[in-house]
Write a structure and sequence with these properties.
heterodimer; A: 174 residues; 5 helices; 5 strands; B: 226 residues; 6 helices; 40% helix; globular
Amino acid sequence: MQDEELATLEADLRSVLTDAGLQWVLDEVDRSIADGLPQERILRRRRRTRAEPTEDDYAKFYEAAEPADEQDARAAKRAGTLVITTEPYTPRQRLQALLLAVRRISIDLPQIEGAAVAILGSTGPRDGRPPAHSLSFRSEAPDDPRDRTVTSTRSTVSHDLARVITTLEQLVNE
Amino acid sequence: MSSPDPLLTELRHLLPGTTSNYTAASKAYDVYEGFVFGLVVETADNCGANVRYATVQGASTTDLCFRTAPGQLYSDAQPYTHAVIEFFGAPPLEAHLGVRVQGGSGVLHECDVLVLSSAEAELSRNNRIAPRGSHCLLGVECKFYAASLGIDLARNFEGVHVDLRAKHEVFVANTDGVNVVKYLSARRRLLERSVTPGSPQAGYLKSHVREAFKSYLSIHAPSALI
């Protein structure tokens, strides 16, 4: 996909998430995007010279280069010349981050909820623990909108969602 | 290249059915904390402890009620539930979800999953005071994030860790964050990321919980083998 197509898809995907009441997911992704992608660089002297840099030309003596490999990065870390920069997300990376967030909230989280219900509702390995009949979250205040009873939400919808998200990820990676 | 439009239409149709319970970040946090609480209970089971659930009034229950926001361990506003964990020959422990704990500085911190002795918990309930962090066995900070973890979460954990002084503390997340890993690793803090059902990392977290139980038993029941 070209950058223009990626931008259109991102806008459409954002609209889908907003309409589904998942603005908080977009907020989390946007925070990540604003942080950028951390990259390691090694600070090296730009040219060989015996003269020590002065306050005025200090910055000119050095340049930041990509580490050649892990060993190079480790050596730079020991020498105190490993530095960090951040790269902005590319349009493709922005969409990849969005789709990963959709996967986490629509596939991973229901699985986590199902696992919590399964673990707490089981009798344990020696049948010694009484299984929980219900699992609820309650605020100290009565009738709080956050109050809810948890049930296992595994269903065929998750399989359909997984297929849609996987296909979208493949499209974005083309 | 095929058009993504039919996929987006399908996504628009499917998404509300699955995510309607998670329209606020806090609801996702609740679910994740419940899952990690389950892993702690499961580890106690696997280590041979007798586990049961009890309300704040001390009655046994199988209807589990957890907090939607951190509260006092002694709060009886709802029949909040904790797990009672009994290892043979050792004083009982309790596992709580979302309670406030007093740090060394005298301020209260929030602990997503907390394991402490029943004696300290009883002291808290009887006197309506927060349990003391230095008297707690294990504190687990749980983070469910849809995107990568921000460095602020690690800084927060570090600050709480320094003040809380529980014997064991672990930072657990469903996702990843390069800066979080670097920051906490540099400070030798326990961190398990990508902890999801069935993942190897869920097993590693259970190993940390087992280590906490082992250290407790080494003092109170040295002959116990778990």
